[in-house]
Amino acid sequence: MAKIVISPSKYIQGNGELNRIKDHVNHLGNSFFVIISKSGMERFGQKIKESFGNEGNLYFEIFNGECSKNEINRLRKILEEKKSDVVIGIGGGKIHDTAKAVAYYEKMPVVIVPTIASTDAPCSALSVLYTDDGMFEEYLLLPKNPDIVLIDNESVANAPARLLVAGMGDALATYFEARASKSSNSKTMAGGYTTEAAMALAKLCYDTLLNEGLKAKLAIEQKVPTKAVENIIEANTYLSGIGFESGGLAAAHAIHNGFTAIEETHNLYHGEKVAFGVLVQLVLENADLDEIEEVLSFCDSIGLPITLEELNIKEVSKEKIMEVAELSCVPGETIHNMPFEVTKEEVYAAILTADALGREYRK
Ligand SMILES: [Zn+2]
């Protein structure tokens, strides 16, 4: 089998780029269908309309909040009525995934505009589908990556710091999952083996987090886009995006998917749960204590959860944790890309041990 690396056709990141959105997307079509949240509309609606010069070939539809089959079908119906020919998703991960799915079914170009840097979803040829109540359902693999990913640093810098931190949690998994996938010679989401290029980006992603993460978090708390913020936006979005998709996913994301079944974790962001999944993966691998401590100290420095209690799981029961372990090991889950066989009993043990390591660190 071949090695394959995939990426969006164009990645644009800069200060004030949302004001120039029309110039960036105009060549893709004539009529633009924008999926956006209500708060996103309040924050960016006017800016986008002004960029298009109030020409009226722009239709805004408010997102219902979940990337589910029902929501995708609802949006497709409206898009067909409006006769739009380009889909633009403006907002966070669930809006991006929804926009990509709608564009795929309608066979149209798609532009992804992250207004936060909280996941590595924007660049990928992948939509994660959830049920209407927010439980992980399945991955929808798309034949191509977005035509354009456009990020305005200023919008990310004005978002709550917790979102950028969650993005760092998602990006934290990239290197460790790519390393595991490469060592097991697993097929990645790109449909082939891991390239050296994807591995290099995944490693750069991890190094950028360690070097710039805390500086970026402190800057964004002051709502200013410094160089460190710019570098972390790139790490969370581009490096992690290419890194996970063409580098490979493994245990950390599968364990995250298991945690989505636990009601108490629903108010935590994807990346916050993924970060804990990284710790669990490192325990599964029996990684060096130095490496585990490096990850614990990074998570602690920027405020990512390192214990079950910090994942909002106040009462730890065998039943509950076994359910997470079982779900993370279902056939087809990326945990089977680990370089050794993983059972639900081992995941159960690793979750409790990761929690104990986190609590030990907190002492
Ligand atoms: Zn992720």
TrEMBL record:
Domain of life (superkingdom): Bacteria
Matching entries from CDD domains are given as: GlyDH
Q: What class of enzyme is it?
A: oxidoreductase
Enzyme nomenclature, EC number = 1.1.1.6
Catalytic activity as recorded in UniProt: glycerol + NAD(+) = dihydroxyacetone + NADH + H(+)
Q: Which UniProt keywords apply?
A: Metal-binding, NAD, Oxidoreductase
Q: In which pathway does it act?
A: Polyol metabolism; glycerol fermentation; glycerone phosphate from glycerol (oxidative route): step 1/2
Specify the Alcohol dehydrogenase iron-type/glycerol dehydrogenase GldA domain's residue ranges: 8-152
Specify whether Iron-sulfur is a keyword of the entry: no
Q: What NCBIfam families does UniProt report for this protein, alphabetically? A: PRK09423.1 (NF006941)
Entry-linked PANTHER family: GLYCEROL DEHYDROGENASE, GLYCEROL DEHYDROGENASE 1
Family the entry assigns:
Belongs to the iron-containing alcohol dehydrogenase family.
Question: Protein name, please?
Answer: Glycerol dehydrogenase
In its UniProt entry, the species of origin is given as Tissierella simiarum
